[in-house]
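Human: Here is a favour to ask of a fellow structure person. Comparing notes only helps if you start from a blank page. I am asking you to supply a protein in sequence and structure-token form. Write it directly below this note and I will take it from there.

Assistant:
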Amino acid sequence: MVILKTKGLKKYYGQGESLVKALDGVDFTVEQGEFVSIVGTSGSGKSTLLHMLGGLDNPTEGTVFVDGKDISTLKEDALAIFRRRKIGFVFQSYNLVPVLNVYENIVFPVQLDGNHVDASYIDSIVKTLGLESKVNSLPSQLSGGQQQRVAIARALAARPAIILADEPTGNLDSSTSQDVLGLLKVTARKFEQTIVMITHNEEIAQMADRIIRIEDGRITTEGSRI
């Protein structure tokens, strides 16, 4: 089942001689349960693409379908609700709420949406990510790797259709990066999640089921599904 699809996706900035084609006709699909890496150098368009996939920015042209919904048809308020329910984000900078403890950070998006917290499901995520002893700790009391694991748990908490990870190991050392990505892959398999991750790190990218390469706003190679 296709969970994510782009069709003729373009994002242009400026005009005339100063026109920049950040995305220039991107078409690809992601199947439910896949772990896909999007790889490219700085300025290749990968971050712009992730913003389009997550509804954080509007395309100049083209469409993005998430779980069968064309998100470009949604007005701002409806899009915000859709993002909260259907898309989980994992950012390089963690983006944890400093005054909330680990458990509160994890369940925050669920509570924000007014939904009941499934305690057993949250506990399962916490155990899988090895955070049992840290649930009452504040983000400032955690290492970078632990904070990123909390961010992953938070992204999983609402059972989104897809998780978008933006350079999730960018602030971590090599060893911790491997550990965190390994856990991300394990949790994705266990909770049947779909992940699209952008990275410039080839070693990290190899952990995915499939690698998509983007340069100058266009997909240059699209790896085979495993």
